[in-house]
């Protein structure tokens, strides 16, 4: 059977794309191929579970538009299918006078992105929201929420199958070839023919893209984010979500506290180079993948430029005392003994040949495929919007 659309990757982006296509054109044959035995095992299943409001992103960027659009869709979806979520709000805390300027820039950005109800907090007002936090000023963002993105993805998968779409688990894609208008996707369980292939392979999205585009200019660099958890007795130190003011040069750095939809409070993550694309432990190493990272000219440029920041993150990875010190900037009374080792997630960060870390979402099309090549945070929040965007790109190609 020839599929109309084959989607590689059963993370939240691939599933949202399949769902949009099936809901828009129910008669199309859609197949999702996932290498793991369950969906959402990688970035989607190991994230912080935050429904982002759209505060941080450059106005007009794909991140800003898809986050804001996706935010509303996510809330409506959770309401419709009774998926537990909570709009608990968050505070962003400036811990020094120098950070207040950056915090005010963030506030402006939030306004430009259409956020309403944000409140600037004076030092003495911080405690009304988070009694144990320390800082010189802050912003309260009421829209931010929490949800379990595994539950969301499971519902997407259920709806895809109900609509007649197929999800093949435990099936790894190794090649794509094409004859005429048909692409053949070669997998560990045989081949599948399709009119169009959509690549949503997350940490391996560049590898899949290279199967059809030899001269791809980006490589995925895997950055592991490690978390600690607050012990049960110390969970009272965090009411909801507490974030630092991000460094504009490294918006994804900076440890924060997150009350999780699944229960518990996470502290972290840091960001260290993972020696394997799906390397969740410090000891996970894949020599081939590591060599590919280290020899990528773009990575070498990033390493030369930001080695100091990288070393700091590495140090915090190995030293719980240093990690605790970073957390104490936000909550001074936190002690090492209040933290137990938590999980880890690996971010797929696209890096170009010139050492540019791609900030925005990146979708590249070629004759045979649509490749989602950079879908970092807030892609879970934005998933229904990205799914709509990518799905519509695919539908317009099938129409022609
Ligand atoms: C530590 C961390 C915290 C985050 N926090 C948040 C947050 O709070 N809020 C938010 O909105 N976003 C957050 N994000 C970002 C968000 O989780 C990701 O952007 C999103 O999950 C990306 O989804 P995806 O479907 O593109 O990738 P993935 O979930 O990684 O899915 C890709 C899938 O492709 C499959 N695959 C790969 N290669 C093949 C192959 N050859 N054959 C078949 N299948 C293949 C993989 O097995 C995987 O299941 C966070 C991310 C991380 C890592």
Envelope shape: globular
**Which spans have pLDDT < 50 for at least 5 consecutive residues?**
none
C-alpha termini separation: 21 Å
Q: Based on DSSP secondary structure assignment, what is the total number of beta strands? A: 20
> How much is the radius of gyration in Å?
21 Å
Q: Strand share of the residues?
A: 25-35%
Which ions and ligands are bound to the chains? flavin-adenine dinucleotide
Helix percent reads 25-40%
Specify the number of helices: 10
Strand and helix order: EHEEHEEHEHEEHEEEEHEEEEEHHHEEEH
Give the helix/strand class. Answer: alpha+beta
> Mean of the pLDDT scores?
94
In short:
With 400 residues, the protein is an alpha+beta fold. It has helices spanning 12-24, 62-80, 97-112, 126-129, 149-162, 205-210, 287-295, 297-318, 320-328, 383-399; strands spanning 2-8, 30-33, 50-51, 85-86, 90-94, 119-122, 137-141, 145-147, 166-168, 173-179, 182-187, 190-199, 218-230, 241-244, 256-259, 265-268, 272-273, 339-352, 362-365, 369-374.
Please characterize this protein's 3D structure:
It is globular and about 65 Å long. The chain has helices spanning 12-24, 62-80, 97-112, 126-129, 149-162, 205-210, 287-295, 297-318, 320-328, 383-399, and strands spanning 2-8, 30-33, 50-51, 85-86, 90-94, 119-122, 137-141, 145-147, 166-168, 173-179, 182-187, 190-199, 218-230, 241-244, 256-259, 265-268, 272-273, 339-352, 362-365, 369-374. Strands 5, 6, 7, 13, 14, 15, 16, 17 and 18 form a nine-stranded mixed sheet that branches. Strands 1, 2, 9, 10, 11, 12, 19 and 20 form an eight-stranded mixed sheet that branches. It is 32% helix and 27% strand. The chain is α+β, with helices and mostly antiparallel strands and 400 residues long. The chain binds flavin-adenine dinucleotide.
């Amino acid at each position: 059977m020839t599929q109309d659309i084959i989607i590689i990757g059963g993370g939240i982006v691939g599933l949202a794309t399949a769902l949009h296509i099936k809901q828009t054109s129910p008669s199309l044959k859609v197949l999702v191929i996932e290498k793991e035995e369950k969906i959402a095992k990688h970035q989607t299943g190991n994230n912080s579970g935050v429904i982002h409001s759209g505060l941080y992103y450059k106005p007009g960027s794909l991140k800003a538009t898809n986050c804001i659009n996706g935010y509303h869709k996510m809330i409506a979806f959770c309401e419709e299918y009774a998926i537990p979520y909570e709009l608990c709000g968050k505070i962003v805390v400036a811990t020094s006078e120098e950070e207040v300027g950056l915090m005010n820039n963030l506030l402006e950005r939030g306004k430009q992105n259409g956020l309403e109800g944000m409140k600037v907090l004076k030092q003495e007002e911080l405690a009304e929201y988070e009694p144990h936090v320390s800082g010189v000023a802050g912003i309260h963002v009421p829209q931010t929420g929490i949800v379990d993105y595994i539950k969301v993805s499971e519902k997407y998968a259920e709806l895809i199958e109900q609509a007649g779409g197929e999800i093949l688990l435990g099936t790894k894609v190794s090649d794509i070839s094409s004859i005429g208008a048909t692409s053949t996707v070669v997998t560990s369980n045989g081949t599948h023919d399709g009119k169009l292939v959509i690549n949503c392979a997350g940490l391996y999205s560049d590898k899949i893209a290279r199967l059809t585009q030899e001269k791809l200019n980006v490589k995925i660099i895997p950055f592991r984010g490690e978390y600690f958890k607050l012990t049960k007795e110390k969970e009272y130190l965090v009411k909801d979500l507490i974030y630092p003011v991000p460094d504009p040069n490294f918006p994804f750095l900076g440890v924060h506290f997150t009350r999780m939809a699944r229960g518990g409070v996470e502290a972290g993550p840091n960001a260290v180079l993972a020696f394997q694309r799906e390397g969740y432990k410090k000891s996970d190493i894949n020599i081939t993948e590591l060599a590919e990272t280290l020899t990528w000219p773009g990575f070498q440029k990033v390493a030369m430029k930001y080695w100091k920041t990288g070393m700091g993150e590495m140090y915090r990875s190995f030293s719980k005392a240093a990690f605790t010190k970073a957390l104490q900037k936000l909550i001074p009374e936190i002690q090492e003994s209040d933290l137990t080792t938590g999980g880890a997630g690996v971010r797929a960060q696209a890096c170009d040949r010139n050492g540019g870390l791609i900030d925005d979402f990146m979708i590249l099309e070629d004759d045979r495929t649509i490749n989602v090549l950079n879908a970092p945070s807030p892609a879970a929040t934005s998933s229904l919007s990205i799914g709509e965007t990518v799905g519509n790109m695919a539908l317009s190609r099938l129409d022609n």
